[in-house]
Amino acid sequence: MEAAIKLGRQYYIEVGQPQRINFIAREDSYHGTTLGALSMSGHVGRRAAYLPLLSSWVHSVSSCNAYRQRLTGETDRAFASRKAAELDHKFRDLGPDTVIGFVCEPISGAALGCVPYVPGYLAAMKAVCTKHGALFILDEVMCGMGRSGTLHAWQAEHSDEPGRNCVPDIQTIGKGLGGGYQPVAGVLIERKIVKALKNGSGAFLHGQTYQAFPVASAAALTVQRIIKRDNLLENVRVQGAYLSSLLHKRLDSHPHVGDIRGMGLFWGIEFVQTKESKKPFDRKLNIAKRINVTGLSKKWSMSFYPSQGTADGTSGDHVIIAPAYNITSTDVEHIVSTIQGVIGDVFETLEREMADQ
Fold first, then answer.
1. Residues 164/166/167/170 CA torsion (nearest 10 deg)
2. Would you say 113 and 270 are in contact if contact means Cβ atoms under 8 Å apart?
3. Using CA atoms, how far apart are residues 207 and 191, in angstroms rounded to an integer?
C-alpha cells in the first residue's frame, strides 16, 4: 500500500498534474500498519495511538456496509448510487483536480469482517473517479488472489457492458499470492501508469530492502500454478457456496448472530445483543476474542480471526472464517459444526457470568 500511494502521486507528477495530493479512502477500512498505509486506513483502534503522526492528505467517505447502512426498502442499485453520490460530493469539496484517487477494499478485511461490495458499487465508484480524472485503487491484499472465488475480487462484478467496468488502475495483492509459504506482496499497475513513467522519468521512485526476493517470487509463482493446475478457484466457488448455506442454516436463528456475510471462502460473522436493535455488545466483554480463545481450546482446536469496532469503529465484534482453497465438503461441515459449538459455549458461559453478577 505504501508503494501504491507513492505510485499514484508520481503518476500525476509525470503527467503534469502535481497539484493532485489528496486521497479519498473509506471509514472502517484497514490498509496496513506503516504510517502511510495507516493514514489511508479508517480502523479507529489501530490508528488511535498514532493520530498525531498520520497524514492530512487522506479524506474519508463511508464504507459499503449494507447490513448497517441500507435504508428501509433501498435496492442494491439505489444503495450503490447513494455511495457514488457521496464520493462525488467529496471530490467536489476537495477540488476534483486535487485528488489522486479513491482507495477501497472490495471485500473488507480486519476492520469490518468480510463485508462485500453490493452489486453495482465498484463500477459506480470507478465511474466517479473516471469523471474527475482520478485513479481507482483497490486493496485486495486480504480478499484477492482467489479468496473470493475469482482471481481478483472485482472480477465477479466486472463486465464489458456499459456501466459495469470496475478494472482498477492500481491494485495491491498479498496473502493469497504466496499462500503463506513465503512473505510476498505486490502492486498491479494499469498500462497508462506504466506508460507515463516509462515516457517520463523512466523509473518508479520507491524501493524496499527485500523487494524482488527470488525465493518469495518462486513460491508465489508455484502457488499460482497449483491453483490453476488443481482448479482451486472452482473449488473456492463450490465450497464457498456450501459454506455460506451451512452457516446460514446453522446460525441464522442464533439470537446473537446479527449478520453472516462474505464471498467465496471469505466469511464474517457479526455478533449483536439482539437482532432487532443490531446493538453491539459492550467492548469490555471481548466477544470476538472469547470466540477465538474458545476455538483454540483443546475441545475445538480451530482458529477464528477476531476483531472489534465493527459497529462504530470501537464497539462491535466479528470473527472471520477463511479456510484453505483445497477444502472438501467434509471440511466445510466440520468448520461450521465447530463454529456453531464455539458460539454456543461462549454465550452459555456469558449468560452464567451475567447471572452470577
1. 170
2. yes
3. 20
CATH number of 232-356: 3.90.1150.10
Helix (H) or strand (E) holding 5: helix 2-14
Model confidence at 357: pLDDT above 80: no
Strand partners for 335: none
Q: Quick check: helix, strand or coil at residue 297?
A: coil
Region 156-170 average pLDDT: 92
**Contact between residue 160 and residue 277 where contact means Cβ atoms under 8 Å apart:** no
For the record, the C-alpha cell of 341 comes out as: 459449538
Sign of CA dihedral 332, 337, 340, 346: negative
Q: Which of 294, 313, 312 is nearest to 304 (CA)?
A: 294
Structural domain spans, the chain: 2-228, 232-356
* DSSP structure class, residue 184: -
Query: Taking the model in full, what pTM does it have?
Result: 0.95
Instruction: State yes or no: pLDDT of 161 exceeds 90.
Output: no
**Cα within 13 Å of Cα(110), Cβ side:** 13
CA dihedral angle for residue 228, residue 234, residue 239, residue 244, rounded to 10 degrees: 120
Q: What burial letters (b/e) apply to 249-263, b meaning 16+ CB within 10 Å?
A: ebbeebebbbbbbbb
The cell for 35 is 504510517
Q: Was domain 2-228 assigned CATH 3.40.50.1820?
A: no
HEC letters along 172-231: EECHHHHCCCCCCCEEEECHHHHHHHHHCCCCCCCCCCCCCCHHHHHHHHHHHHHHHHCC
Do residues 270 and 310 lie in contact, with contact meaning Cβ atoms separated by under 8 Å?
A: yes
3-state secondary structure of 105: coil
